[in-house]
């Protein structure tokens, strides 16, 4: 673990972002499980694909905002690297790139 110095009042925001980042990682794992299901012959519908892509878009937007916020708290570019070490570091499964 590293010691992080943040601006006054930033500790709560940093803790919240860490918790959200963990959730982000869990969502990514769920998306990978769905991709595995479809890639192994599971039932597929256009409606289901559209919903998954919508959720993936929302997850991506969250991640970008979280990286920006952490960058403001840290005040340097290392924040993005540190956030990615916590979670949301998995690449998109092939299913979503079709």
UniProtKB/TrEMBL annotation:
Primary gene name: mobC
Organism, as annotated: Faecalibacterium prausnitzii
Protein name: Plasmid mobilization relaxosome protein MobC
